[in-house]
Amino acid sequence: MSRAAILPFPGDAYLLTYWLHLFRTVWYDEIDRLYIYFNSPIEQKAVEYVQALADDPKITLYYIPRQIEHGEAIKHAVNELVQEDYTMLVEDDGFIFKPGKVNQCFTMIEDKTFDIVGSKRGSCSTELYQAALQHFGLTDRGLGDNGPNFWPCFFFAPTPLLRQVENFAAKAWTKGQVVPYINHTVTDDVIASDTMVEASLQLRSLVPAYKIGLVPQYHGHPDDMDHFQNKQYLFDGQALWCHIGSLSSGIGGILKDDQNRPLTRRLIDPPAGSTVLDHKPTTDFEKREYERRVQWWLTFWQFYTDSVSGNSTMPELTDLYRLAIDRIIEQYKLSPKRITQRQEIYRSLGL
User: Fold this and answer.
1) Do 336 and 259 belong to one domain?
2) Residue % of the chain over a pLDDT of 90
3) In the predicted model, what is the mean pLDDT of residues 64-84?
4) Are residues 242 and 343 in the same domain?
5) Does residue 299 form part of some domain?
6) Average pLDDT, stretch 127-135?
7) Among 59, 118, 271, 287, which residue has the fewest nearby CB atoms (within 10 Å)?
């Protein structure tokens, strides 16, 4: 029996430096092969750095010079790259910081205890959420993520089962259309779903409920500081992994150069003419959400610069990455103190 992990990767080389360090030092021996589906228009120096970083007998790096939808990347990898018997889906902001959990989840599939192992998720319109709960007879309670769907991170299944999935991508339905697998006719004008939602409905239709194993996702949250103080959720002393969430909004989105171009597209997009960032947070809750993300981008930058010891092969991009972080802190009026505090609580986990 052989094990694979699929990592769709949209181009943050600083994040990947950190992610692969955890892979190599924590759970390297728990899988047979890691497939990195690298899809990004980022500049050539960064591509070459990533290719060198992923030079490893257990890693297959597949590169296309454009960004594609996350679910599409999963589908391509499942159907065109993976050769192993069992597959784990993981994301580049899913960090495994203690050994054993990946092996445990694969073992539960291999010994037929479960057909799939995953974490509960909503991430769809209320109408779809409620219709799916009702169709599958599911409850909606408990700390952390809930819902009828699965995260495309820390998800485990036999590879042939994943190859039956028709759509891993986000999808919307309009009034009068029937949502497949739950036979629900849409009543709202439009209902939407994120990555893995339609796939989750199909998988639940294929797998009996008693053959679905559920594990906590330990997804990041703006209230992480409170969770730390109260020893809850990610800080309950039992977490072996965490899914930070929303970090893909960085280098391909709100981390921009001084001409307002996302860093992955700075050499191909024309200047935007304004350095004002979009979607500025207005509430304290929103600011804490951005502080949560910024502290990680800062952690990645610091880890990378320490790793290369001043010998960066992409010095211009590295400087722009840090400047973009500083620009967000200033323009969003974020708290450097709270950002530092967040770094400290995650270090307490070994991250």
Assistant:
1) yes
2) 91
3) 97
4) yes
5) yes
6) 97
7) 271
Q: Are residues 203 and 242 in the same domain?
A: no
* pLDDT tens digits for range 197-223: 999 999 999 999 999 999 999 999 999
Residue 71 counted as domain residue: no
Q: Which residue has the tokens 């990898």?
A: 77
Q: Is residue 73 part of a domain?
A: no
Residues 228 and 341 in one domain: yes
d(CA 145, CA 92): 19
Q: How far apart are CA 224 and CA 226, in angstroms?
A: 5
**The pLDDT of residue 248:** 87
Whether 277 has a pLDDT exceeding 70, the answer reads: no
Residue whose C-alpha is closest to residue 200's, from 181, 214, 213, 172: 181
Tell which residue, 56, 67, 65, has the closest CA to residue 29: 56
3-state secondary structure of 38: strand
Whether residues 131 and 242 fall in one domain: no
| 239 plus 202 within the same structural domain | no
pLDDT category, 143, cuts 50, 70, 90?
A: low
Q: Is the pLDDT of residue 145 over 80?
A: no
Q: How many structural domains compose the chain?
A: 2
| 52 within some domain | no
- Note whether 186 and 207 are same-domain residues: yes
**Cβ(168)–Cβ(195) under 8 Å?**
yes
Region 306-335 average pLDDT: 94
For β-strands 33-39 and 59-64, DSSP reports them as parallel
Spatial neighbors of 211 by CB under 8 A, at least 6 apart, are 114, 115, 116
Separation CA 161–CA 86 (nearest Å): 9
Average pLDDT over residues 133-161: 90
Give the angle 61-92-344 at the CA atoms, nearest 5°: 135
- Most distant pair of Cα atoms in the chain: their distance: 59
- Are 329 and 294 in contact by the 8 Å Cβ rule? The answer is yes
- Domain closes at, from 174, 196, 214: 214
Per-residue DSSP letter, 270 = P
Q: Which residue range(s) make up the domain with 334?
A: 224-347
CA–CA separation, 34 and 16 (whole Å): 13
